[in-house]
């Protein structure tokens, strides 16, 4: 799985991220919100073209699982051929639940009910995270467009054993966390 968060309408950043789908052999794209719009508090990113982002992602509609970010709206859904407006979603991976959320409502301080060893994947903060907290996996791939906290633009990858945050420009791992199966 390839995890992409906080695209904020940048076709330039999205194209770089999608190259990793092929390079890493990822079968599914998990979009963690803030897909098309930059939002009123963010600068307009390089390559800002929400319609092009929607058209490019529509090419992968059959392998996308997405959740709604605080910058996503019903108008955005009109451009996308995949469901974009779920506040959260669940995946079952190796018999364990993985909760997906943008992070503006559910977040590490406000988790859904999770059993020991399950996981929570989120975006919103633009800060990468790959760690265990109270026996729950917390994973945030950072932002491919507007990274914060001095971190480079990044995305996430799960290879069946390890969740890794990768630098967008080089693919170099920034951090990782094993998820025992």
UniProtKB/TrEMBL annotation:
One of its GO terms (molecular function) is hydrolase activity. Its cofactor is a divalent metal cation. Keywords: Metal-binding. It comes from the Bacteria. Its EC number is 3.1.4.-. It holds the Pfam family Metallophos_2. Residues 2-155 form the Calcineurin-like phosphoesterase domain. InterPro entries: Calcineurin-like_PHP_lpxH (IPR024654), Metallo-depent_PP-like (IPR029052), MPP_YfcE (IPR041802), Phosphodiesterase_MJ0936/Vps29 (IPR000979). Belongs to the metallophosphoesterase superfamily. YfcE family. PANTHER family: VACUOLAR SORTING PROTEIN VPS29 (PTHR11124). This is Phosphoesterase. It comes from Neiella marina.
């Amino acid at each position: 799985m390839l995890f992409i968060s906080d695209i904020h309408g940048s076709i330039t950043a999205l194209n770089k991220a999608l190259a990793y789908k092929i390079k890493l052999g990822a079968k599914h794209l998990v979009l963690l919100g803030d897909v098309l719009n930059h939002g009123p508090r963010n600068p307009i990113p390089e390559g800002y073209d929400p319609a092009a982002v929607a058209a490019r992602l529509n090419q992968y509609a059959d392998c996308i699982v997405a959740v709604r970010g605080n910058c996503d709206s019903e108008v955005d859904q009109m451009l996308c051929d995949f469901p974009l407006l779920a506040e959260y979603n669940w995946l079952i991976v190796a018999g364990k639940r993985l909760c997906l959320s943008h992070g503006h409502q559910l977040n590490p301080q406000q988790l859904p009910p999770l059993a020991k060893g399950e996981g929570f994947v989120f975006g919103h903060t633009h800060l990468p995270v790959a760690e265990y907290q109270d026996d729950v996996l917390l994973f945030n791939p950072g932002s491919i467009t507007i990274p914060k906290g001095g971190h480079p633009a990044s995305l996430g990858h799960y290879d069946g054993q390890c969740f890794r945050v990768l630098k967008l420009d080089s693919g170099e791992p920034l951090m990782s966390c094993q998820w025992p199966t």
